[in-house]
Amino acid sequence: MSCVVGITSDPWSKRRNWESLHPEMENWEIIGEASSIEEAEKLKTAHAKEHGCDEAMPSAEPDSEQWFVFHFDR
What is the mean pLDDT of residues 34-61? Predict the structure, then answer.
């Protein structure tokens, strides 16, 4: 089983989107929060390297004061 890590400003919508693409996904988890997209990207990359996960490509989202780093297995 492989894992995916990514960032979003709206984790609930992002989860629904990933579930529609990968109905077999398991263990969705918010693993961190950040106040800037740059900080969230650093957390995402570090987690992906540590756990051998694929990094989700960034999607167009409006700038936000709150970013979430998510992880799930597929």
Answer: 93
